[in-house]
Amino acid sequence: MNGGSYCPVQADSTALQRGVITAVPATVDGIATTRYRGMQIQSDAYDDRVAVVHGGWCYSFSFGSPNRGTLASHDADIRSMLASFRFNR
């Protein structure tokens, strides 16, 4: 999706304030962004989401799990994938 310079992740602000969702710094191919952890997307599905703009395009990454605990247990894997991702220049 072409997003110009704006690339939103729809995060529930109330859940962020309550600490149900956490916003942590992330970097994707040298571009600083925010990773939203533990977003409930269905009654039995949770996501970590990251969005970043590169070359005028909005790129979105989503890592899903049936519960927050399992998602959290893969935190190191998710961080590694984001850190190793490279855009095709």
What features would you describe in this structure?
Helices cover 25% and strands 43% of the residues. It has 3 helices and 4 strands, in the order H-E-E-E-E-H-H. It has helices at residues 13-18, 68-73, 75-84, and strands spanning 22-28, 31-42, 45-54, 57-65. The chain has a 4-stranded antiparallel β-sheet with strand order 1-2-3-4. The two termini are 17 Å apart.
Please provide the ordered H/E string of secondary-structure elements: HEEEEHH
Task: Output the structural class.
Answer: alpha+beta
Number of helices: 3
Instruction: Report the β-strand fraction as a percent range.
Output: 35-45%
> How much helicity do the residues have?
10-25%
Taking pLDDT < 50 over at least 5 consecutive residues as the criterion, the unreliable ranges are: none
Please state the oligomeric state of the protein chains shown: single chain
Would you report the number of β strands?
Answer: 4
Lateral strand order in the biggest sheet? 1-2-3-4
Largest β sheet strand count, sense and barrel closure: 4 strands, antiparallel
Tell me the domain tally: 1
Global outline: globular
Summarize the structure.
This protein is of the alpha+beta class. The protein contains 3 helices and 4 strands, in the order H-E-E-E-E-H-H.
Topology:
Blueprint: H1 13-18, E1 22-28, E2 31-42, E3 45-54, E4 57-65, H2 68-73, H3 75-84
Question: Any descriptors?
Answer:
89 residues; single chain; globular
